[in-house]
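User: Can you fold this complex?
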Amino acid sequence: MPGATEQKIIDAAVRLFASQGYDATSVQEIVTAAEVTKGALYHYFRAKDDLLFEIYRLLITAQSADMDRIIELGLSSADTVREILVSLVVSTAERVDETAVFVREMHRLDEARMTEFRAERRRYHETFLGVIEKGQADGEFSSAVPADTVVRIAFGVVNQLPVWYRPDGPKPPARLAGEIADFVLAGLR
Amino acid sequence: MPGATEQKIIDAAVRLFASQGYDATSVQEIVTAAEVTKGALYHYFRAKDDLLFEIYRLLITAQSADMDRIIELGLSSADTVREILVSLVVSTAERVDETAVFVREMHRLDEARMTEFRAERRRYHETFLGVIEKGQADGEFSSAVPADTVVRIAFGVVNQLPVWYRPDGPKPPARLAGEIADFVLAGLR
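Assistant: Here's the predicted assembly.
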């Protein structure tokens, strides 16, 4: 978890990147909006693209830790899938701005960071795939649809959230999360 | 359906936009790659952004026509959903390059075209929503998960295809389409 100052900087950067674009936002504007000193910003982030990467890294790191924690509980496959999906949908739905900024600007990441990002995303994908495959092997889930397609369907709706979802809209994150988990589990029965 | 010359121009533009970006592609390069005259290109497209819009408009127009045609067959709700999803997944999976280019560059569309695009997309969304709602009202589908979330799940995986799917990969479009339709219908039972 980032400290309070780091989080203030990230929140300000997300708001500015989302409203006026990454290019149009200067480090000075972020510093002013976050009400911190330039020295404080450079203590945490070497440059603006460091901040872009960190915005997303924090989110995916938290989501990975959540998934690992849930798997370690040793619940049934259905309960494991439900907990993972609810946690993933809620954390993504609450932070659609971060995800939208990252998706739009990720082509700016340097090769090392892009590699790190892809590895993190692949690990997350494969861990969830393993949960579905285990449930299918145990006979708790239907094997009618291959696990890789089930994962693409579950992650598809999550990855599209930034395009249409607003956390202050008619459907709160927890309700949406419950509906998505219900549907995926119904499909796996 | 576009004529042969128009399709050659579109195919060349998609290849160039996908490989080197929209900005870096000149009208002259498109003309050369398509093996047509500049006059032929300007006969069909006023400018480069006309071409960008047309690439996507052709796809969504064909998909809308497919959906209308399927609904008119008067099949059961389950068969209607299956036919719509298979047709949508196959047409998108076969043309992931077009969709990827459009998604990346759509912010360049002028206001009138953006409005037209949004209206077309909304109409498609609402027609499919109506099919799910009808099946739920008739009792053919479960109402456990609200129709709007079912539509977001079904379209989520379709809209994410350009991010990961390759039509020449291990899973051909028709097989992927069948799996997605199977899963969505299992969730609706």
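Chain A has a mean pLDDT of 93. Chain A has two domains: 1-45, 46-188.
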